[in-house]
Amino acid sequence: MFSLQTIFGKGDKFYGLLEASAAAAHRSASALTEFLGKDGSVAAKSLEEFRLARQREKKLAAEISEALVNTFVTALEREDIEALSGALYKIPKVIEKFAERYSLIGDRLGDDDFASRAGMLEKACEVLEQMVGQLRSMKLEPMKELNDQLQAIENEADRLILELFRDMYRNENDPVRFLLRKDLFEILEKAIDRCRDAGNVVYAIVLKNS
Predict the structure, then answer these.
(1) Tens digits of per-residue pLDDT, 145-154?
(2) CB 2: neighbour CB atoms within 10 A?
(3) SS3 call for 92
(4) 116 vs 4: CA distance, rounded Å
(5) Out of 3.40.50.1980, 3.30.300.30, 1.20.58.220, 3.10.20.70, which CATH number does the structure's domain 4-209 have?
(6) How is the chain split into domains, by residue range?
């Protein structure tokens, strides 16, 4: 027996668009890791890849919005699709913001370890991409395991940022450098938080439909 989604030919469309959106966010995080390099130093690196990633995410968000208007039957509830699309869109946007700021001021910051934090962000995006990919199956236990991984990454990032701020308050004597470092680390923290937020949306969808 065919489901209504199969009859209308729309069952996979939104899954595919959301999966592409999660993949775009992951690519953006991977580009940031490469951008910073193993030693976190600034080189003559283009920001074009980040702009393209955000534009790709924006285009996918627009496709999802248009499809919601034109589709009678959707694979997921409309508000869930909109919530997840919006959460995914925010990730490359924040990453691009970090890359732009870092390209301007990174050479003034010395040996701050932004690369390891970017690695945590990339891992968070990798787990998030897996979560979105498993939406089709709606299996609660595997999704819970992935969500727990994502929460653990976010918690570790919070712990590290607190340690970093503690060290900065104690040892940073240059107020301008202090503010620049603080701003960049907070942007990275926000990007990881955006991954957590998107993961929470995915997990809530599965809870609702399991």
Answers:
(1) 999 999 999 9
(2) 8
(3) helix
(4) 47
(5) 1.20.58.220
(6) 4-209
Global pTM exceeds 0.70:
yes
Q: How far apart are CA 131 and CA 126, in angstroms?
A: 9
Q: Of 26, 86, 79, give the one whose Cα is nearest residue 62.
A: 86
Of 182, 147, 154, 156, nearest in space to 168 by CA: 182
DSSP 96-118: HHHHHHHHHHGGGSTT--HHHHH
CA atoms 16, 153, 157, 102: torsion sign? negative
Q: How far apart are CA 199 and CA 4, in angstroms?
A: 28
34-56: pLDDT as tens digits: 888 744 444 445 788 888 888 88
